[in-house]
Amino acid sequence: MKILVTGSDKIYAIENYYAKYFRAFGHEVIHFPAQRLFLDEYTSSFYKKLRFKLYNNSIYSKINTDLIKSLKEQSSLPDVAIVFKGMEIFPDTLKIIKDQGIKLVNYNPDNPFLFSGKGSGNANITKSISLYDFHFTYNLSVKKRLEEEYRAKTAWLPFGFDLTDEQFSECVKEEEIVKVCFVGNPDKERAAFINALAEMKVQIVVYGHHWKKFIDHPGVEIQDAVYAGEQWKTLRRYRVQLNLMRPHNPDSHNMRTFEVPGVGGIMLAPDTLEHRTFFEEGKEVFLFNDVNECVDKINSLLRLTVSQANEIRKNARARSIASGYTYRDRSLHVANVLRSL
């Protein structure tokens, strides 16, 4: 197949995994980095930010024009276009693409019905739902709503992890730090939870951007964001990896759900149906319902012997591999669906 992928090409972008494996499976991929083009333009100057806020479509218009232009320059049209999220793509642009016989597929790694911040969604997403031939969603509740309200064709596509054997071997060499760690960027809800842990005498290390704007507590150590190899080592290094959900994603799972167990980390996460679907609680991961239960489980995990902790790490890693939670497995599933379209 010839596949158009639109979204981002930043180092942290989930789109990169799918583009990489589509190519590995022998498909031709056009990767149009709509989100990165927007961010590059939007953050280039105060004037650009102000203009975008006053004239909402100013940057989007150029991105949509460039997308249509890039398709016209192709020697042959794509068979299918898979749009990741889609905040930057106008519904009218999707109609133009669809009118050329290209199948339209959406994968939104956020909730298309609940926007908790300026980066989690906009009207382009809402207005475009009915235009797609197929929807992938990470969230079972979203899947049900798409089917019931839009009669959409859907498939459940959980997040995953992408870690080579060589990277895993390097991570295993990391000397364990018997502390709690959180890797991710702040919001007021996450900050409130971490502050509550600190008030209950939990020592915690956080990695991410701008945490100092949210937290000033002696029990919280703040480190810069980590990516790629350093992120994997960080997820592996600490005894407990805390996983906190975003406000628009209270009952599902997120990227850390698979990244932490995938690298053999010990994950402590909110107790959701999807977390219990993917892993066995108390053996492969640990789950909590409130801050008090979270503290109790943190203290229990910190008291484990090294051999006990390593047994959990082994269980988490083994389940992740045996159950096909890698992005290669996810990409193969998506490619099969695209082919069927």
CATH class group of the largest domain = Alpha Beta
CATH topology term of the largest domain? Rossmann fold
Quaternary status: single chain
Give the fraction of residues assigned to helices: 40-55%
Give the N-terminus to C-terminus distance in angstroms.
Answer: 11 Å
Can you tell me the CATH architecture of the largest domain? 3-Layer(aba) Sandwich
Average pLDDT, rounded to a whole number, is 94
What are the low-pLDDT stretches, counting only 5+ consecutive residues below 50?
none
Give the amount of beta strand, in percent. Answer: 15-25%
Number of strands: 12
Radius of gyration: 21 Å
Order of helices and strands: EHEHHHEHEHEHEHEHEEHEHEHEHHH
**Number of separate helices:** 15
Q: How many individual domains?
A: 2
Fourth-level CATH superfamily of the largest domain: Glycogen Phosphorylase B
Largest sheet: 6 strands, parallel
Q: Give the neighbour order of strands across the main sheet.
A: 2-1-3-4-5-6
Instruction: Categorize the overall geometry.
Output: globular
Structural class: alpha/beta
List the topology elements.
Elements: E1 2-6, H1 15-24, E2 28-32, H2 34-42, H3 46-54, H4 58-72, E3 80-84, H5 91-99, E4 103-108, H6 123-128, E5 134-137, H7 140-150, E6 154-156, H8 165-172, E7 177-183, H9 188-199, E8 204-207, E9 220-223, H10 228-237, E10 238-242, H11 256-262, E11 267-270, H12 273-278, E12 286-288, H13 291-302, H14 306-322, H15 327-340
Helix pairs in contact: 1-15, 2-4, 8-10, 11-14
